Amino acid sequence: MDGTDAPAVSPRLDRLAGGTAVRLIQLRVADDEELEAVQTVLDDRSIRYVLTDEQRGDGAASLVQFPLPPEAVDEVFDDIEDAGVDADHYAVVARAETAWPDQSDAAERYEDRISHDELRGRAVGMNPGVVTYYGMTVLSAVVATAGLLLDSPAIVVGSMVIAPQVGSALTASVGTALSDRELVVEGFRDQALGLTVAVLGATAFGLLVRYAGFVPEALRVATVQQISQRISPGFLSMAVGVCAGAAGAVGLATALPVSLVGVMIAAALIPAAAAVGVGIAWELPAVALGAGILLLVNAAAINLTGFLVLWGLGFRPPEWPEGWPTVGTLRDHAPTVAAVALLLVAFAGASTVTARQMQVETAVNDAVADVLDDGAYESLRLLSVRTRFGGVSVYRLDRAVTVEVSRPADEAYPGLVEQLGRAISDAIDERVAVDVTFVERKSGTSERRAVRAPSRATAPRMT
Predict the structure, then answer these.
(1) How far apart are CA 167 and CA 259, in angstroms?
(2) Of the candidates 312, 315, 303, which has an alpha carbon nearest to the alpha carbon of residue 342?
C-alpha cells in the first residue's frame, strides 16, 4: 500500500484501540502427541495460536502461545489437562494490554471472572511488605483517632484511604475459598496483628492528647458524634462490613479495580479500632467494648461474606466434588472447614450482642415517638435519637440514650426528660440514662442555637 492510499488511522491500530486486556499463555509441550492434543483443544474453541520449536538435549519440544480473555483461562486449562497434557509442567500466564484480533467477542462466551491461579496471585500481590503494612496501619489509626476526637468525617475518611487492610482481608477469603492453608494462616494472622497494632496505636495517641492537654478535660468522648456512631453496633453498621466483604470479593474475582474497595473495607475496620483505643485511653469500658464488638462483627462479616461471594462465583478447592461433600472431602480440605467454622463462631457471638442492640434501638425509637405524640409536645420536632452503651457491669450492659429535639424559642418542657426516661425504661426493661438536647428555632430566621440543659434522667431497671 502506498502513502496516498493509507487511511488516516491504520485499520489494525483502530482495532487494537478497541481491544481489552488479555492473558498471553505460553505452554510447553514435550512431544507430538501432546502438541496434537493441545491443538485439538484450541481448534475446538476457535483460539488462534503460534508454535515455536525449540531444541533440547534429549530432543525437540514446542512452545504454544495464544491469547485468552481472563475469564477463559481456567476452562481452557481444564480442557488441556483433560486431554492428557500436564499444564503444570511448564506454563506461563502473562498479562497483555491487548491482542489482535480483538478478544472481546470471545470473552462473552465465558463467565465474568478470572482464573483460580490469577485470583490467588492478585490476593497475594495486594499485601505490602511487613514494614509498610504495620507502618501504614499505625498512621491510619492515628489519623482516625484524630478525626474521631475532632468529630471530622473528612479526616476519618482520610484514614481509610491510607489503611492497608484490604490485602489481608481478601487473602483470608481467597485462602478459605481455595483451601490454601498458607493463605488462610497469612490472612488471618495479618488481620489479627494489624488490628491489634491499630488499637494500640490509637490508644497511645489517645493517651498523648488526653494527658498533654490537647483536648479539654471536660470532653465527654462518648457523646462526640463520630465516636458515638461506632460504640453501639447495630444493623446499619453491620451492613457496612457485609457489603465491604462482598464488594471486595467481586472486585478481586472479576478483574475489576479493587483500590476503592479497599477504602470500603477500611471504613468498616479502622474507625472502629480507633474508637476502641479512645475508650481505653479515656478509661471508658463501655466505649471500648461497644467499639470492640463492632470491630469484631465487621471483621468476621468481611471475611465470611468475601468467602461466600467467591464460593458463589465458582471458586472451589481443587477436586471439590459436586453436591454435598463427604467426610473425607472435609478432612482433605481442613483449612476451609476450620476457617469457616471460626468465622461463623465469631460472627454469631458478636451478632448476638448486635441483635440485642438492634432490638433496644427499635424499642427506644418507638418509646420516644409515643411520648412526643402527646398533644403537650406537638410543637417539638424530633431531630435524632442515639442509643449507645452507657456502662458495663458484670451481668449486663447499661444503655445511654440521647434525644435531640427542636423547640420554639423561650418555651420550656421541664417534664420531658423524666417522661422519656420512664417510657424508655419500660420499653427495654433495662437501666438507662437519658439526655435531651434542645435546639431553639425562631420564626423567620435560620439561626439555630443548641441548648444542652441540665436535663439528664437515670431511670432504674424495671422489675
Answers:
(1) 10
(2) 303
pTM, two decimals, is 0.70
Max distance between CA atoms of the chain, in angstroms, equals 99
C-alpha cell at 398: 447499661
Which residue type occupies 41? V
pLDDT at 276: 95
**Bridging pattern class, strands 22-29 and 50-56:** unpaired
Q: Is 249 within 8 Å of 305 (Cβ atoms)? A: yes
Burial class (CB within 10 angstroms; exposed 0-12, middle 13-18, buried 19+) of 303: buried
Cβ density class 49-87: b for 16+ within 10 Å, e for less: eeeeeeeeeeeebbebebbbbbbbbbebbebbeebebeb
- Rg of the chain over Cα atoms, rounded to whole angstroms, equals 30
What's the CA gap between 252 and 256, in Å, rounded? 6
Decide yes or no: CATH 3.30.70.120 for domain 11-112: yes
pLDDT tens track for 41-90: 888 888 888 888 765 545 567 888 888 877 678 778 878 888 888 776 77
List the chain domain ranges. Answer: 11-112, 122-319+329-354, 373-459
- Give the list of residues 6+ apart from residue 257 with CB closer than 8 angstroms, or none: 251
Sequential DSSP letters for 83-152 = TT--TTSSEEEEEES--SS--HHHHTTS-SS--HHHHHHHHHHT---HHHHHHHHHHHHHHHHHHHHHT-
Check residues 369 and 461 and name the one with the higher pLDDT: 369
What is each CA distance from 259 to 22, 137, 163, 250, 263, in whole angstroms?
20, 16, 11, 13, 7
With b for 16 or more beta-carbon neighbours within 10 A and e for fewer, the 370-387 pattern comes to: ebbeeeebeebeeeebbb
pLDDT at 456 over 60: no
pLDDT tier at 318, thresholds 50, 70, 90 = confident
Cα(30)–Cα(55) distance, rounded to whole angstroms?
11
